[in-house]
# Entry
Amino acid sequence: MRICDLFGGGPVFSFEFFPPRTDDGERKLIDTVYRLKELAPSFVSVTKTGAKPAEKTVELTARLKHEVGVEAMAHMTCATAGRDEMARIFGLIRDAGIENVLPLRGDPPQGQTAFVRPSDGFRHASELVAFIRERGFPFCLAGAAYPEKHPEAASAEIDLQHLKRKVDAGATVLITQMFYSNPDYFAFVRRARQLGIAVPIVPGIMPITNVAQIERIAALSGAKIPRALQTDLDRSRDDEAAAREVGIRYAVEQCRELLAGGAPGIHFYTLNQSPATSAILRELRRDQP
# Structure
């Protein structure tokens, strides 16, 4: 099923995973997805990481779709590949029966501080989206969005123009980077609509389970941690169970406010863990008629 066809009814809930480094890690991830399947997610997505080749993302995405039985989307980056290689990879995705793709530029290769376009490659994700459409691949294409601006963008306005080009090229649903300040999301959606971006904009939420870990991730992504939340995290910094409870409580209220304000669903960045995400989604499911 194409995930772009899921929107328009009730909230669309989804989970994101990354390919583990080991076979044992992959077995544990499959078990995690089986547990989360009980919560009836609309789809799951699998990232492309530098630690694994693109084929691993395709293989794991196909396993989740065909073996576990949940709709799945493959992330695919173009930071180190040219057009012929990307065409080959998208052919593998199509032949694996995967209907949904999140095209990304990706981070610079390890050891590089700045992105350099590969020979015969792409500078931006919008170019990759256009390439997929031009080649006739029949995917539903998602796109990444940044409520607090992409870290490399010169301004929020320029970043939004890039996003508009991505949608104009063929992205039919947007999923945001993690954030903890709902006003930033709602303001971002308003500005996007004013610019003519009409596709669903799904908020991405990363439940907090470890204070130091989330602070590192937030610093890298440019996500702000609101002062009140930071105060609660500081109080529970040395108590992992307490920090997890703070994170779950905050995420439940954050998601409730987002859904009440018109968000079309929630995309959970799970970090390949199920307990916190399960607890949050169970609370949200109770709110649904």
